[in-house]
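The material for today's practical consists of a large collection of protein records. Getting from the letters to the tokens is the skill we practise here. To make this concrete, we reproduce a full record directly below:
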Amino acid sequence: FMAGATNYAGKISESLNWAVAIAQKIGIKINQNFISEYIANIPAMNIVTSMGGWLISLFTTLSLVTLFVIFIFMGHAAQDNPFLSNIERQISKYLMIKFFVSLLAGGLTWIILASAGTPLAATFAFLTFVLNFIPNVGPFIATLLPAPVLFLTFGPAWQIPYVLITLTVIHFLVGNILETKLLGKGMDLSP
């Protein structure tokens, strides 16, 4: 992805020409030379490199947090107290269900992104898996996260709405229907 940063500048230029042509068809006057010069001066490689560094930093931090959480739940301090033992069992059930639902959402995300030919499909699938643990906001962020890469890769093409709509449907079905049903059964909750 980072190696193609110069190609992305061309995609942005093509998309700009497309947007200017549409604006001119509906009667909006735009100074295309000014915008083209401004876009040409954007340091695309620096932006892509810093985004890659941010993703690596996020991955490292999330990995460490995951390891700490695993070690915390492997402790056996609650065995002596039945109340704490019950809480530990309920939390373990919740995390197991959430883990498998997040794994499903990440897997389906990878399938959709890979079928559309998106670079970094596996990275976005992993981020979907991790972000799915954040209620309400996580799946929303995971849905929008591939949009800049899709735009830089394909420009204004059919892949962007296809991926965004499909990911929205997946997160809705997995998060609001499947996860709710599994948590209700697994934790003895009634609707």
Remarks:
- The two ends are 45 Å apart (CA to CA).
- The chain has a mean pLDDT of 79.
- The helical segments are 5-25, 32-40, 44-74, 82-115, 121-131, 137-144, 147-154, 159-186.
